[in-house]
Amino acid sequence: MLVEELRAEIAANGGWMPFVRYMERVVQAYYGKSDRQFGRGGDFVTAPELGNLFGRTLARQIQELEGPILEFGAGSGALAHALLAQKLEREYFILETSAALRRRQGERLGTKVKFLERLPERFRGVVIANEVVDALPVHAVRWTEDGILERGVGPRLTWEDRPARGALLDAARAIEVPIPYESEIGLAGRAWMRSLAERLEQGVIFVIDYGFPRREYYHPQRAMGTLMGHSRHRTRGDPFERPGEQDLTAHVDFSALAEAARDAGAEVLGYANQAQFLVNCGITDVLAEANVENALHYAPIAAEAQKLLSPAEMGELFKVLAVGRDINAPLLGFSQGDRRHTL
Ligand SMILES: C[S@@+](CC[C@H](N)C(=O)[O-])C[C@H]1O[C@@H](n2cnc3c(N)ncnc32)[C@H](O)[C@@H]1O
Q1: Which of 35, 137, 274, 328 is most open to solvent, judged by the fewest CB atoms within 10 Å of its CB?
Q2: Which residue lies with its CA nearest to atom 2 of ligand 1?
Q3: Does the pLDDT value for residue 35 go beyond 70?
Q4: 197-255 residue pLDDT tens
Q5: Which atom of ligand 1 is nearest to the CA of 38?
Q6: What is the C-alpha to C-alpha distance for residues 202 and 324, in angstroms, rounded to an integer?
Q7: 182: helix, strand or coil
Q8: Distance between CA atoms of 218 and 181, rounded to whole angstroms?
């Protein structure tokens, strides 16, 4: 049982576990089960799970780029399925940490995809991470009158805070917030981006996820942070409720990812909200290919477009960040409304 394992690890570590370690354990356990996360009967619905409109539109951007595709965290395999159907004639690699989901993806996609065990030493091509960075473990931090604290977990699986140290303290000091304030710092996300960007010899990395630039992320009104549990389409505030049974996520600080990519020598090529990106890629042309006369066929596609584009749904909260190396032409997806300057 995960709860017993967590308690044992906390006891072995002097009665405390940093929150980042707790999140790593529970997210791993959560994705270790392949049967229930995705889709309408699951815990949440991602853009590729809505249908193939997202994939067909993203394919128009990929078509302008060269090389194989590497998808991180492919979930049920829905995006790979939609992209492969577009006959892009590329090799398709998946790097998925959950063995159970790897199996599920393998069953759905067969020999059309190859699985990677770890980051390749070098990569040329197109990297996609849709709703993956929000699942990477974050450090939880409290800025108080008495100093900056790292939030962690005590023996009873409740919050316990200790003074922050090292790289976390440095990162927390660099963020301007009113006091008192609680939030998250995604050091693992930054490291992920840095090592990926270092290995990218030529091509583009697309990170698609919910989040903000730093100034909005650490906004005075967001003084309780962005941690969320997801279960059965409801968000839950308590990260210690049923560990491993609910997904745990934090919003993405896109400024931090952009900085990490630049540190690795890559260039930030574009940053836009999901609606703008999909419109730039020609989602309306993809929609126009659907048979408007046939309501039965058209209604679900129109509903899908509404979810992807509406500012009240995924259109504004979700962003697309592209970083790359050795790309000379502007990217289709950022031809209008590029908000790089806000990062
Ligand atoms: C919210 S799901 C998104 C799935 C899919 N991309 C989609 O949009 O439907 C997160 C996915 O990332 C995977 N994952 C979590 N941490 C990862 C990591 N460090 N590297 C690669 N995949 C990871 C999970 O197993 C899962 O497949």
Answers
A1: 328
A2: 75
A3: no
A4: 999 999 999 999 999 999 999 999 999 999 998 777 677 778 998 898 888 999 999 99
A5: 9
A6: 7
A7: strand
A8: 9
pLDDT in tens, 115-174: 999 999 999 999 999 999 999 999 999 999 999 999 999 999 999 999 999 999 999 999
Amino acid at 161: D
Give CA angle at 162 (157, 167), nearest 5°: 115
Using a 10 angstrom Cβ sphere, with 0-12 exposed, 13-18 middle and 19 or more buried, the burial of residue 55 is buried
> Is residue 335 within 8 Å of residue 280, measured between CB atoms?
yes
Q: What percent of the chain has pLDDT over 70?
A: 98
Give the CA count within 13 Å in the CB-facing half-sphere of 120: 18
What tokens were used for 208? 């698609």
If one counts every other C-beta atom within 10 angstroms of the C-beta of residue 183, the result is 26
Per-position DSSP letters for 233-289, written without gaps between them: TEEES-TTSSTTTSEEE--EEHHHHHHHHHHTT-EEEEEEEHHHHHHHHTHHHHHHT
132 CA → ligand 1 middle, Å = 4
Digit-coded pLDDT (tens) for 87-120? 999 999 999 999 999 999 999 999 999 999 999 9
- The region, left, alpha or beta by phi > 0 then psi within -120 to 50, assigned to residue 108 is alpha
The label of the residue with tokens 């308590």 reads: 238
Cα(220) to centroid(ligand 1), Å: 30
- The total of other beta-carbon atoms located within 10 Å of residue 63's CB is 14
Side chain identity at 35, as an amino acid letter? D
Of 23, 93, 132, 320, best ligand 1 pocket probe by most atoms within 8 Å of the beta carbon: 132
Work out the mean pLDDT of the chain and round it to a whole number: 95
Closest CA to 227 of 87, 58, 31, 23: 23
